[in-house]
Amino acid sequence: LPEQEAFDIEYWLLEEAKLQRMPKPKSLAGRIALVTGGAGGIGQAVARQLLQEGACVMLTDIDGGALEEAEQALLKVAGRDSIATVRANITAEHEVEAILNAAALRFGGVDLLVSNAGIASSAPVEDTTLAMWERNQSILVTGYFLVSRAAFRIMKQQQLGGSMVYVASKNGLVASGGASAYCTAKAAEIHLARCLALEGAPHGIRVNVVNPDAVIRGSRIWDGKWKEERAASNKIDSDDIEEFYRQRSMLKRSVLPEDIAEAVYFLSSEKAAKSTGNIINVDAGNAAAFTR
Ligand code: NAD
């Protein structure tokens, strides 16, 4: 090569190498996220990922003590200017309004909603009381509706589009023995997401669903009765529950809170700008085929 040309190429390669080493702009910088159930295992993992991608996060949960602990843990990832918390019950209309007002006051609005707060309860249908049935519908359907409605109003007013991601469940697609109240509520959540996707599209508001299968590590749901009930329903020892789900899956892998967070992040980001009304199952293959 002529000397000047060789010099130009070397110079260009050096500039390229410098660019590669420069910190990339964060993909959610300037975005404001609201995460419900933020004190729980999946909620915290989602909040951590959104913070790492540069979003400001308003975390909400009914459990004030656990919410404080979650905030302390997340302050290791991002500063006080990016994290705020508000204790609220998503089934109470006025408390939901207070969550959205708090987000507006603290950060100026809401662009990304992650509707994730939840419970799990299980009983054979003949033992399912009306109270158990109504608790599932109230938190998993009415609660999701109330938070979505409030966020929808703000997003529409902002005229900046937005994203909602529902953390539903594989059990909203596939029935699970002795858990009709939970499975029915999760199915309704998924359909609510599709309805809101249709209404949101003209305003640039996308609504998608992430369906976890059993996420045992980190989840507070699995600390309680649910573990014993699921173990009994599958006729196994409760200590073997994680291994049971791992072995049952197509990929023979356990699903972790961080796996759910990755899918939520993808759907919340511009990478999914053309996805709405969709579902990502993060279930190691469990919704596609039963392998035991
Ligand atoms: P988790 O119990 O660790 O977190 C759920 C959080 O929701 C808790 O902190 C709880 O206090 C909060 N919450 C419950 N009721 C509320 C209310 N009325 N108002 C406000 N907050 C409320 O459980 P997780 O595993 O992190 O579950 C998160 C979501 O994922 C839930 O919707 C759950 O149904 C779904 N999911 C979980 C699994 C799993 O195996 N862990 C599987 C499928 C779906």
TrEMBL record:
It comes from the Bacteria. Belongs to the short-chain dehydrogenases/reductases (SDR) family. This is Rhamnulose-1-phosphate aldolase/alcohol dehydrogenase. The chain holds residues 411 to 702 of 702 of the full protein.
